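Supplementary notes for students who missed Thursday's class. We covered one full example, reproduced here. Read the sequence, then the structure, then the short commentary at the end.
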Amino acid sequence: MNLLNAYLAKPSTRKALSKKPGQEGFSLIELVVVIAVLAVLTAIALPNFLGVSDDAAARAGQQAAITAFKECQVAKARGQANSASKFQAPTVQGFLIGAQTKSASDVSGITTVDAAVRAVGDQAAIIAVTPADTAVSTSCFTSTGAVREIFAVPTTLDTFPTYKVAQDGLSYCLTGTTAAASKTYNIGCGSTSDNTVVAGWK
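Structure (token representation):
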């Protein structure tokens, strides 16, 4: 009995015996509640995260067009306003960057060029085009020295807007259509209307 009493008198033994059954771990209800809370938080956070990613991609396209326009302005200030002057076309995920003269048949100078830039196929093809007044290329100027307009065109129709920096430096964008699978087309345009040219995204 002395050995038993000595064993039961130990602090470690008393601590072990003082624990109630089921005190360790979580109950099934607690686990279900935690999983439900995590599911709700995920459902709220995921769309916001995807929106941030789309916005960043759209801003990259806008910035590429602005940068190209600024390069052309620098060339003009240096007296290099000829069709051989080109801007460094960046590789932007989801966009093609090109320049073209304003279309006389399209007062906004964006809808027609949107299709023309995409028809070229890829950025390398746009860069390789021999500068010509009507060609989609990275040439800053026409043969007469007129400034060409810079476009950032989405590679997939209606995934993002088409962005334009006009000859006078003003910015425009063209929204897509609600028939598109993606609904991100109006980022930066300030309008949810279909096929609408909107000014002032810079």
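Commentary. The mean pLDDT is 80. The longest strand covers residues 95-100. If anything here is unclear, bring it to office hours.
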